[in-house]
Amino acid sequence: MNRSAFIMPVLLVAVVAVMSSVFIVDEREKALRLWFGEITQEIDEPGMYFKVPFAHEIVTYDKRILPLDTQALEVTPLDDRRLVVDAFARWRIADATTFRRAVRTGGVELGARRLEPILTAELRQVLGGVTSNTILSADRVNLMTQIRDGARLEAAALGVEIIDVRIKRADLPTQNLEATFGRMRAEREREAADEIARGNEAAQRVRAGADRTVVETVSEATKNAEIIRGEADAQRNAIFAEAFGRDPEFFAFYRSLSAYENSLKSGNSSMVMSPDSEFFEYLKSDNVK
Prior knowledge:
The chain is of the alpha+beta class. It has 8 helices and 9 strands.
């Protein structure tokens, strides 16, 4: 009984000691083994490792690719056309020992904060050496490669490798947008006014041409009508002259009937004339044949 009471605590202490002496490194991590704060080993391979309890400290870091979003910053290209640039980077811890000495106990969060000024400075330097059109064109890929390579050299001092840098957006500052939009609106309004003026000018030419065509057509029709009317009158007069030459008496009688018809219509004005007038010659004559 006394022996069992003695063995159980010993076994418990032994299990605790063994568990305290073992640590596991995940495949997504890399670890540092510190002896009273001094780095003694960097572990990159996953597996089970041993340590001295209370003497060794194990520090682990994520060895996967990590994101870094920079704050939007304003850059001034060579053409003095200011742009607001928003970029992001992908990075990883390449040397855990160097990283630990650079950030101490700050970890990945402090490493990201130390890395952001490096990336921001490189953005200003590279983008400030080109025009805004280059930044907004397909050449931006080459610019991002330059930014990555430049930042990678400085980031190596932190034990960090920058995998990639990308520009998410490059826009005009807010205070410049309204002025730019105002210029665009004015330009479009000017173009619209020019188009309207050209359209009105073309419409005026079409209307003038149509009016000239109408006048010419009416004039030609009137001329033809007058010619036809004159030819008809000539033919009529020729017929009348021929009839008059054949039978003057009948021609005079026909002309008198036409005069009676036109003068004695209802609604005409009253006529006052002598009963002996020649106008009534055929109305009172009994000798007409």
